[in-house]
Design goal:
about 90 residues; mainly alpha; 5 helices
Length: about 90
C-alpha cells in the first residue's frame, strides 16, 4: 500500500523565486527533481519514474531530456569496447 509523506521545508525566498515563483508549482518541481535523481541513480526505472509523476512514458522521457538526464546508463568503458569491436571488424574486411 502506498504511503503519503508530508514534510515542511523552509527555503530562502531567492531560491523559491529562482526555482518556481508560483508556489503551487514548487511542490511539483521538487517532486520531479527527486524522481529524476532516483532514476539517474538507478533507484527507480524510467517507467516507474513516469508512473510516480503520473506522466506518460513519452512525457517522462521528454522531462528527462529537458533536464539532460540520460535515459540509458552505459557501463564504464562501453564505448571503448564498441569502438574496438568496430575497428577489428573493419580491419578484417
Amino acid at each position: 500500500m502506498p504511503r503519503r509523506i508530508q514534510f515542511e521545508w523552509e527555503l530562502p525566498d531567492a531560491l523559491v523565486e529562482a526555482v518556481a515563483p508560483d508556489e503551487a508549482r514548487l511542490a511539483d518541481v521538487i517532486k520531479q527533481a527527486t524522481v529524476l535523481d532516483w532514476v539517474r541513480t538507478q533507484r527507480l526505472s524510467v517507467r516507474r519514474g513516469a508512473e510516480l509523476l503520473q506522466m506518460s512514458y513519452r512525457e517522462f522521457l521528454e522531462l528527462m531530456a529537458a533536464h539532460r538526464s540520460p535515459s540509458i546508463n552505459y557501463e564504464e568503458e562501453w564505448l571503448e569496447r564498441e569502438l574496438d569491436i568496430l575497428e577489428r571488424g573493419s580491419a578484417s574486411a
